[in-house]
Amino acid sequence: MSAPRPRQMHLGLFILGTGSHVAGWRQPGAVTSFEDMAAIREIGATAERGLFDLIFMGDNLYADPAAHPSYTSRLEPLTMLSALAMSTSRIGLGATASTTYGDPFSVARAFASLDHISAGRAAWNAVTTANAVSAANFGRDHPDHSQRYAIAEEFVSVVRGLWDCWDDDALVADAASGLYIDPAKVRSLDHDGAFFQVKGPLNISRAPQGQPVILQAGGSAPGQRLAARTADVVFSVVQDLGEAQAQYAAFKAQLPAFGRRAEDVTMLPGVMPVVGRTEREAFDRLAALQGFLSDSNALQLLSDRFGTDMSVYDLDGPVPDIALPDSYHSFAGVMLAKARREGLSLRDVYNLMGAARGHWVLCGSAEQVADTLQHWFESGAADGFNVMPPFFHEGFSDFVDLVVPILQERGLFRAAYEGATLRDHLGLDRPARGVWPARLAAS
Amino acid sequence: MSAPRPRQMHLGLFILGTGSHVAGWRQPGAVTSFEDMAAIREIGATAERGLFDLIFMGDNLYADPAAHPSYTSRLEPLTMLSALAMSTSRIGLGATASTTYGDPFSVARAFASLDHISAGRAAWNAVTTANAVSAANFGRDHPDHSQRYAIAEEFVSVVRGLWDCWDDDALVADAASGLYIDPAKVRSLDHDGAFFQVKGPLNISRAPQGQPVILQAGGSAPGQRLAARTADVVFSVVQDLGEAQAQYAAFKAQLPAFGRRAEDVTMLPGVMPVVGRTEREAFDRLAALQGFLSDSNALQLLSDRFGTDMSVYDLDGPVPDIALPDSYHSFAGVMLAKARREGLSLRDVYNLMGAARGHWVLCGSAEQVADTLQHWFESGAADGFNVMPPFFHEGFSDFVDLVVPILQERGLFRAAYEGATLRDHLGLDRPARGVWPARLAAS
């Protein structure tokens, strides 16, 4: 009788622009355009070689060269992930789509389509779109934070309802009788809510995963509630272990109220690993990356993240006691808390933000990085990690080639894909038709 | 000195569901699901082997198993074409997106993305969405015909404007200086119109084709005007040569009023070829296909196409003198005209509609089919054809393997792709930045 296998770690690759370091594209040899499908194919191949659970693409709905230059121009997520579906065969594919600036019929349809195209690897990262600048591209007023989450709650319910309009075996295509679809196995949704009226059914049959996977990253209380009620995977923003443990415990504690178990949702804190063959090599690399930061965009980046004009403050002075506005990024709250704990200057905060936009930076030898990830994973801080490479390709392939094998040796991470779908990788059941709509209606 | 090459024919492959014959999926061995990416890959490979200019995917925004069963379930066009971009290398990729149930920022962005992913092969089939049933999936009232076209005129102008916000060389990515984007080379659109307010710029750089190709198929007077003003390729619905010649002449005559030449727009009448190695084989195949039609959905299909309840009429009686409603398909007008010319019964019309939904059916040996296409092409009826196979794969591969070689032998069709982009295939210049917005503002 073999020993029980230890609990398995899950790994997501976060991609948005040319890497998570604000100036990582300046690294010699780095990918400098996130519109280059050949480079993106290579990133996908590396992630699949590393047996990652999924690739997950963030998004913004506006162009602002000041905030993070390499984020201003990029491929649209659903088209990019659909293309990646063809050059990969096993890895999950997560695309961001907004519940504030989209409509549920189109979103449900597109992700069902991606799930068919990829044979069960689609995931929707549902976001409410924090930045008010987006509104001007859609001729709309930007709803406030609580309104955005009220809309999102209904939006996700409608999408999950649309995904369940078709029975799995509704498409009959019986050439002999001429029956193509069994009409008794397709039903409309007839949703009539506060924000959306959607009749349905969807014009695509039930997805290979039944319901594509839903990802969320909301850090606020309404964001946590939305995730606890509707998400399969949660990304979080943390800066240290204690914070991660507290967030993890608090989030998992919310699940029973929605009829869900702790293991029903995979929680992945974001981490920017800077890996070297030695500790020295890693810190040299981080120093080189930080050397690419410039004062000129420091205050712009801070202003964008904090949702308020920071140029009135001295970059080398203390972090001011600002009130975060409604539209703040969860990064900002985490950073301000850390600054107060550790007495950081505004420049210190900028350096941290520039490195990983507020995410945890983990710098060290491959062994040190693996040790720390294992420690977090085993001490109630994470079900795995959302890996945010500072740049591509080396900034990611080093993690895959140096860190992943150590995690595998320790039995913490798969040595091969064991299933075919993203749900398989995450250890999530394929939900029967009707389960999700009933759960959401009851909660 | 070689003789001048004859004018070249253009070929598009139209795909929507499992084929253009309403019951073509019942053909033994036919593709029975249009959600099967392996089958769609094979269709793309066949079209590229046949050196087609483009694949063009139609769409609907609702599911109605009654109207055309195989159209009810299918992949979403943009995700599907993005996937096809990876399994093909030269053929143009056209996806349908609605100007009534979409927004211009998202549409402009998605097609620019497809153009980057495919290295210059994207085309947008801009439709106004005729069927009012769609509205219920978007919680909206369906605008009437003239309103839809007023919206579409503005929508297309905004999309073309957004595509031109970036100079071709705005993305600098100069690692030495740290300049990623040259801000002087990116500008907002600041559109403030009757239907749309869109600030811009787009969050993706200028497309490889400058402006992705725009396709249109409107048959009404406002549809023709929209196409003459804004489209690069026009699909048309015709039943015979005289009608095609009249449409061709009338459409091309509209172009000078918008500052355009006849050769600036490629006009492709739709044709459903039923090809055999002999004439007998072709007619046997058509008879087999028509044998799959059933009375039960005959009146449903007619009702859908005519936009009015046809079940009150006798299927074997004469075609009634109905007034076409605002939302009619152009198919309906063409069919009614033909029925009056030729004294057809309602069943005759149904048989024609069932065969190709109102499009021209061209049945014969490969030689006969090539002869007829050449005759149309050389007598002022077409710049090429929108090929609508009755079913896949044989219903299409026979055209590629039997008819295309004859057209090539006659010097009417390319023997190899000569350019890399869809614009190259169509013989259209890559427009300089500013040309389209200026033209649309003036017209």
UniProtKB/TrEMBL annotation, chains A, B:
GO MF annotations, alphabetized: monooxygenase activity; oxidoreductase activity, acting on paired donors, with incorporation or reduction of molecular oxygen
Luciferase-like domain span: 22-381
Residues annotated as binding FMN: D59, T96, H145, Y149, S220
Keyword Aminoacyl-tRNA synthetase listed: no
Keywords for the protein's UniProt record, in alphabetical order: Flavoprotein, FMN, Monooxygenase, Oxidoreductase
Pfam family membership, one: Bac_luciferase
CDD domains linked: Nitrilotriacetate_monoxgenase
Highest taxon listed in the record's lineage: Bacteria
Family classification: Belongs to the NtaA/SnaA/DszA monooxygenase family.
Entry-linked PANTHER family: ALKANESULFONATE MONOOXYGENASE-RELATED, C2H2 FINGER DOMAIN TRANSCRIPTION FACTOR (EUROFUNG)-RELATED
Protein name: Monooxygenase
